[in-house]
Amino acid sequence: MIGIFGGAFDPPHKEHIRIAQAVKEEFSLENVVFLPSGNAPHKCLQAPFSLRVKMLQSALQGAFPIDQVENTFTEKTYSYKVLPLLREKYGDIAFLIGGDSLLAFEKWCHPEEISKICPLIVVPRGEDDLARLSAAAEKYARLWGAKILISQKVRGEAVSSTMIRAKCALGMPAEEVADEVMNVIKQNGLYSEYADYVNRVKSMLRETRWRHTCGVVLAGLKINEKIGLPFEKVFLGCLLHDCMKHTDRINDGVPQDTRGTKVLHAFNGAEEARLAFGITDTEILDAIRYHTTGRANMTTLDKLVYTADMVEELTRDFPGVEELRAVAYEDLDKGFLLCFEKCYESLLERGIPIYYLTLDCYNCYCKKE
Ligand SMILES: [Fe+2]
Ligand SMILES: [Fe+2]
Questions:
Q1: What local confidence, expressed as pLDDT, does residue 72 receive?
Q2: Cα 291 to averaged position of ligand 1 atoms, centre (Å)
Q3: Same domain, 221 and 356
């Protein structure tokens, strides 16, 4: 039996290869064929097909074959259409999927068709509950006669391609990716759409503040895994939030009453994002503007940047930060509230004057009836 390992592979990472090897062994597969997705119905791909294949070739070094059939589809590619072609080509096949995909199997296009074509090999991820996966497998077996094999030996680690792309965009090392793949990424300028913004912000900040900024981008994207805001909003909101931290230059449009205070850089940064970086998206501008003060009725992006700013993993290291982080990654609303309360208390303790928007925020979210 041949295992079919489909994915965007944007980019392929070390964990993909570890999983392929381990599944091959556990289920005594003849081979595992990597199947980079063409136009996947749900994913917004950032690297073109040919370069994702090139990265895969560099990652696999011939250890596993790559099937490029999905590139021949001009329409969107669905598993129920591609798998029959692969069965014709390879004979006995099994389709590798993650635990999360199994739980969402009902929402796939024609799961009943897929169930007839070949067995599924499920690789549980991180904290996936095996009992829950088994229950789902039994249900699909009953409904559609699906043959579902759940791996008992392999656990996929939660490696996020979005996070890898963000690291590349920030010019950070990404240890999840093999050096050979990183070379292809660099040589072809992949994931560098925001290089101009990144370089400019970096040049405006001191080293530690830049590190903090990278941390905020990564924490923001991690929080966003449960929320699903557009990548660009999260990336740019976080990237630009402190861009005016180290300057005396004050932009037009910055409120007079912020001058000389700790909240100035947020308002000044929003104006800089608008005037110098050409950001027109008001949600991004607001998230930058209110990242220090908060405000009443915050948008999700407001809360996300505020919270990521406080819990990021690269420079934030105050007592209790780990608990805040854990809550924030799980539930932004709760995480935001904890972060805001902590800041508010600290302002009171230190006798720092409280800006009126912070008071609005407190009255909106914290005041007990
Ligand atoms: Fe800030
Ligand atoms: Fe910050």
A1: 87
A2: 6
A3: yes
- The answer to whether residues 233 and 286 belong to one domain is yes
CA angle at 86 for the pair 83 and 87, rounded to the nearest 5°: 85
Task: Please check whether residues 129 and 60 belong to one and the same domain.
Answer: yes
Q: What's the CA-to-centroid distance between 74 and ligand 1, angstroms?
A: 46
The domain of 221 spans 194-365
Return the ligand number nearest the Cα of 217. 2
Q: Closest ligand to 213 CA?
A: 2
Asked if 110 and 198 sit in the same domain, the reply is no
The rounded Å distance from CA 196 to ligand 1 centre is 21
Report the separation in Å between the CA atom of 237 and the middle of ligand 2, taken as the mean of its atom positions. 11
Instruction: Give yes or no: residues 124 and 198 share one domain.
Output: no
- 229 and 132 within one domain: no
- Give the distance (Å) from ligand 1 centre to CA of residue 292: 6
Per-residue confidence (pLDDT) for residue 73, from 0 to 100: 83
Q: Output the pLDDT for position 208.
A: 97
Tokens 């993909």 belong to residue: 16
CATH of the domain at 32: 3.40.50.620
- Which one of the ligands is nearest to 307 CA? 2
Parallel, antiparallel, or unpaired for β 148-150 and 93-98?
A: unpaired
Structure tokens at 101: 């995909």
Residue 294 shares a structural domain with residue 353: yes
245-249 CB contacts, 8 Å cutoff, 24+ apart:
245/205, 245/209, 245/269, 246/204, 246/205, 246/206, 246/209, 247/204
Ligand 1 centre to CA of 263 (Å) is 8
Mean pLDDT by 10 residues, the chain (369 residues): 94 96 96 88 72 96 95 84 94 93 91 93 89 94 94 89 95 96 96 95 98 98 96 97 96 95 97 98 98 98 98 96 97 98 96 96 87
The first and second tokens of residue 340, run together, are 């805001």
**Model pTM score:** 0.90
